[in-house]
Write a structure and sequence with these properties.
The chain is an alpha+beta fold. The protein has seven helices and eleven strands.
């Protein structure tokens, strides 16, 4: 049985998202959590405004300095909730951009995932091996070997499983990751090689991860997908996932491009 998360839809996921995609470096101010990972992915290089800052201008100056020391742009990951309305208005005044709107999708209470048709052999791994990592990075990665190793640190920063689906010839076709956080399962890193798309491999990865999570006793599943990725939204909708909230990134003028998703 799958249960919905308690509390405000988007706000309830903030701690789960933070734990499922852990930054290499983090600084907790008591109000905001500043996260950095050498610029690899927006998620791991953004501010999580966990609590309302008593003095937003002072908090912002501290965040600017922290990210400047790391030669990174200042980015906020902001869920679409009333709790963030004041900070959003303040960032509007400061000229921060709005970008990368993302849906939070979850299996609703009582829903059972829709089985996928068999499309190949599924390997379930405790760690991302080179084959898994190379396929994912070839689709979603930005940068070279150093950035890929930073990404590996993020991926393995919390307990997770990794699915790799092979085609009939044994070649890697698609991958995905199941982060295990507080009894929930977060679906990440869904990627299919260009030569294997539209052949059911992504559905098989998703179903395999959900099945493994259920076996482990996880009672809730959720995932993140950009608002512009309609094909992925359709895939997840067919599996029973429904939108449960949204977030976007508020960015100060970037000093150099970030890498990854």
């Amino acid at each position: 049985m799958v249960h919905s998360l308690p509390g405000p839809p988007a706000r309830a996921y903030e701690a789960l998202m933070d734990a499922a995609w852990p930054a290499v470096e983090r600084h907790d101010t008591g109000e905001w959590v500043l996260r950095a990972a050498d610029g690899v992915t927006q998620r791991a290089n953004s501010v999580w405004p966990r609590d309302t800052a008593a003095e937003p201008p002072d908090a912002l100056r501290g965040a600017v300095q922290w990210y400047r020391q790391r030669r990174l742009p200042l980015i906020f990951q902001m869920t679409d909730t009333p709790a963030n309305s004041g900070l959003n208005a303040f960032l509007d005044e400061q000229g921060f951009t709005r970008q990368s709107e993302t849906l939070i999708m979850a299996l609703p209470a009582g829903a059972e995932p829709v089985p996928a048709a068999a499309a190949g052999k599924v390997d379930i791994l405790d760690q991302p091996d080179e084959e898994w990592l190379d396929l994912w990075w070839s689709v979603d990665g930005r940068g070279g070997h150093a950035e890929q190793e930073t990404a590996r640190s993020i991926l393995t920063g919390c307990r997770a499983l990794y699915a790799l689906v092979r085609d009939d010839d044994g070649g890697p076709a698609a991958v995905g990751r199941l982060a295990q956080v507080d009894g929930t399962g977060g679906i990440y890193c869904m990627a299919t090689s260009p030569a294997h798309r539209r052949r059911g491999f992504a559905s098989l990865v998703l179903q395999a991860l959900l099945s493994e999570g259920t076996t482990l006793g996880l009672d809730r599943f959720w995932l993140l997908v950009t608002a512009a990725n309609h094909a992925a939204q359709q895939l997840y909708g067919q599996a029973g996932f429904k939108e449960s909230g949204r977030y976007l990134y508020r960015q100060q003028r970037p000093r150099r491009p970030l890498t990854g998703c």
